[in-house]
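Table S5 (text form). Sequence records supplied for joint modeling of the six-component complex.
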Amino acid sequence: MSSDKPPRGSIGAIRNPESDAAIMAAARDLLAEKGYGAFTMSEVARRAHASKPTLYRRWDNKAALIFDLCMSDRTDRLRIAEQGNVAADLSAQIAALWRFWREAPTGTALRAIIAEAQSDDVALQRVRDMIAPGMPEHARLLIEAGIARGDLPADFDTNTALRLIVAFNWLHLLTGQIGDETPIAPAVRMLLR
Amino acid sequence: MSSDKPPRGSIGAIRNPESDAAIMAAARDLLAEKGYGAFTMSEVARRAHASKPTLYRRWDNKAALIFDLCMSDRTDRLRIAEQGNVAADLSAQIAALWRFWREAPTGTALRAIIAEAQSDDVALQRVRDMIAPGMPEHARLLIEAGIARGDLPADFDTNTALRLIVAFNWLHLLTGQIGDETPIAPAVRMLLR
Amino acid sequence: MSSDKPPRGSIGAIRNPESDAAIMAAARDLLAEKGYGAFTMSEVARRAHASKPTLYRRWDNKAALIFDLCMSDRTDRLRIAEQGNVAADLSAQIAALWRFWREAPTGTALRAIIAEAQSDDVALQRVRDMIAPGMPEHARLLIEAGIARGDLPADFDTNTALRLIVAFNWLHLLTGQIGDETPIAPAVRMLLR
Amino acid sequence: MSSDKPPRGSIGAIRNPESDAAIMAAARDLLAEKGYGAFTMSEVARRAHASKPTLYRRWDNKAALIFDLCMSDRTDRLRIAEQGNVAADLSAQIAALWRFWREAPTGTALRAIIAEAQSDDVALQRVRDMIAPGMPEHARLLIEAGIARGDLPADFDTNTALRLIVAFNWLHLLTGQIGDETPIAPAVRMLLR
DNA sequence: ACATAACCGAGACGGTACGTCCGGTCTTGAA
DNA sequence: TTCAAGACCGGACGTACCGTCTCGGTTATGT
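The corresponding structure-token record, covering 772 residues in total, follows.
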């Protein structure tokens, strides 16, 4: 899964894009297999058949790499079959996100980057940018569709709702409680009235 | 602030209770002054004029100490002058909590323990216990008073609301955004209808 | 050769003298087996069942360790059976030194430390101290005995002779030519008249 | 001093002879300015507006470049006004050599190549060749003139004397003590009787 | 009165990750 | 075919922190 035996080597004076991919893949695998506690730059380098300087040429530090890992594979499996019911759709989407976090290592990566941000100001800023107003776009689109449809009042406070949704997701992620999806529906119901 | 100059020394075959306090104080100060990134067991020991074994005799590891720090000074300044308006009271209480987190190092400690919990299962369990159903008791009392008063419907989903409040607080804490209290009121309004 | 399996561990708040010995032994072995090019602090640590911080607690850097290695086992096998002939005795002594340098890793260590001194001012100063006036004491004693005996004139310039002897030894050491002892006698003859 | 701003670029299928000179000049300057510790192939390339492959196309490795540096500018300023007194002439010549080593970076280069030779067999062989019998030619000529003149006995052991002179020079060079010329005269006196 | 036992501060220890540095090789695209 | 530029691997460097361990000493308790 993480082995193209011969090291890639340089392809000239520009960075080898293969390396980026190999490193990211190795990092993803490592995070998935061993978790954040065993996530080591040296081990990532070893698995990617890369060298530590190559890693640090591309990412300032461990936190930056994990952040990229976080960002790299979002917005994929989060497409849901919308049914025109805001509450149901939003619940389904959150459940899909939780499922995604459980299956891909993205959930673990996000936990890691949030942890890292508690002692690294640069990482903190990046995390802040992740939750800018209107930010979980998928959710915003659902809500806006609901408003357009008239299911939600025209003056619905979308940004506040979105922020509460993010907060709700993070809380469950950070406490390792994204396995049980039953809390989702009541929360969504409360937010939408 | 962290100096009772003469080292305490032993008081015999039982543990010196002064040490606990001195260590906690040193830990609190260190966290307040330098933040979680510079929070080191060795430095805590040095400041407390204690030794590392003394620390580890009382706390299993760094996470346990930080957790204790978190728990030690809660539920103090969170008394607010209730006015009988659930939304206003709840907002005031959340604002008071944020203020408390800003002023005391408790906020930093909570951030630290959440970070620690991302790679330490024992810490994770402790964090989970912190947010058990009905858990921010102060808030629960306010909501229950509102239900009793009739301001909130009898079937109001208190636990879900509480969880959303916790999530909302954590999100702002973990992203270093507890300085601006304006998001509080809209969020509370959304939760209470 | 370098294995007392159980790691030594700390003996309290003072440094474990066993560690010093174990590290020095490991360093000596490594230098003898693999040479200066493969002499690595990590490898020394590994062989000594010590940790890198333990090495660096005792020696500022690689150069300091090698220097100690140099100094640790001098003036041992250099006792020769004096015959009362200054030239013969001095030649024998130099030959004994070359033999010592060949057999013990001290020769390699000295080569290493001289090399290191070319890019490390602290090491340079240490090397300078090694060759302070009157410094190869064994040789000085032989010459002084010769003066006392009347074999050498009373105004014999001992320090200059000593310095030339050191220079001669170094030249052959640094060029890997301490195996052939034939150049010794003519040189000594020239120095003593 | 090390800047011909426009990079030279290729002149086609043959090697650009300008590069050799530019690289040597850059290397010389770097060695003179920052010393051996900061002497880096990358830095030489940067200063010479050359690339590392260009360096390695012409020199096998760092040691080879430094060696060339050593050899490139010898036997220039070492002409002295001979006075027909072997001791005086030899002393003057050694002093001139030391001055040369101090002023040109050749002294530093020689220190560097000797250091390099301690962990590189090829460099070691080159260094050995530098001190082949009869090798510091300037000094040999002076001594041979002295013999011819009758100042030195016909059976004077020139090679041994030369070797001791080289050794003496190296010792002072390697210990950074070529600034004080007072030790020269006594040493020469001892070697010539 | 004295021995015991648990405490204490100090700090060294093994282990291991971090992020940096340099030597020598490789590839591109231009000349 | 050469060139400049610069990315690449490999691996050593020296630092930091965690949690453990031992020392030498102090103090309350048990005899």
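Note: The two ends of chain C are 47 Å apart (CA to CA).
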